[in-house]
Amino acid sequence: MWFAAFAFAWLGCAAGGVADSSAARTSQPAADRPAWVIRESAPTRTEPVGPTTRSTGPADSLARANDLLARQIEPAVSRWFLGLALPGDGERVLNGVRQARMLLAEVQADAGEPAPSANRWQDDIDALNAFARAVEDVFAAGEDQADAAERDAAAIQLAVLLEDDRAEVASAARLWRAALFRRLERHDRVLALLPEPLAGLSAEGQRFDFYGRLLRVRSIADQGGYATACTLLLQIEDECDEWFPAAENAVDARRAAVAVRTGILRQWADALDPATHREEREWCLRAIERVRTAACSEPEPCPVLPLEMAVPVLARPPARLTTTRAADEP
Question: Which of 20-34, 262-276, 305-319 has the highest mean pLDDT?
């Protein structure tokens, strides 16, 4: 009992989190104000894949598949990892993955069966297939035994990429494998796979590593460790200036951690019985608005750090695949 009281008192002192002094406070209630928006990354666009879509060859198809997986679905994927999913995000991701898998099947058909000594071209096809399968299984709605077996198989397929000589690929594989284990509610596997929250980020795969730390903390909260999770997030916020030398990225990263913290405070409140823990529950609900206002005092939603790429870019898209990102278009 004394520990719970201490946790609430300590977190109450720290509830303000990271201040943003750029604007005055807003009086709009938390329930009515969406506080966070994913900051837009570099614009790209890939044409929808269908019967009338023409490709100039396997290299073009591979690049387009990679662009769909890396950039087109990224805003919805970033929101999912932060607990900020919007209606329709799941279908957007699944549609993008299905298009990418169609293109990858075309590329594999053109390339033929992989040789025993597969070259980097085949490695890229295999890696993108593994990522596509993982993303699809994370976002698929099914929860029965067959769905669990499919997620297990997708995690096994990703395992080989944990040892990839490209740090970005290995970091992304850890993140998506942990996401699969979280869907399976195997939180021990999530914690064993992802680095400690305050460990330094790798130079390559920096965003995947950062999101991995946030996912690890969310997994701790999933097991009822709400106070521990909030404490770790406060410490992560303190590290953002060192992890992200660019000032804008550091601010956006802190806000991403704050967004996760407000989500965990809501999760904590929902777990408390109003009949027996009314005071603690009301504290959590009040803290959500205090935390949001301290980190994002603008009346409009504040940007948070995106993953930037949902999976690594292994095949560079041709120059003609430009214009605007289509991920959030209806």
Answer: 262-276
Within a 10 A sphere around the Cβ of 324, how many other Cβ atoms? 10
Which has the higher per-residue pLDDT, 316 or 70? 70
State how far Cα 110 lies from the chain centre.
Answer: 33
| Residue 299 to residue 293: CA distance in whole angstroms | 10
Amino acid identity of 205? G
CA distance 167 to 206: 9
What's the confidence (pLDDT) of residue 251?
94
199's torsion region: left (phi>0), alpha (psi -120 to 50) or beta? beta
CB 309 within 8 A of CB 67: no
Distance CA 78, CA 76 (A): 5
The set of residues, in sequence order, having a beta carbon less than 8 Å from that of 188 and lying 6+ positions away, is none
Structural Rg of the chain based on CA atoms:
21
Give the position of tokens 């699944």: 94
User: Global pTM?
Assistant: 0.83
Summarize the confidence of residues 185-192 as an average pLDDT: 96
Q: Given a cut of 80, is residue 39 above it in pLDDT?
A: no
Residues ≥6 apart with Cβ < 8 Å to 196: 216
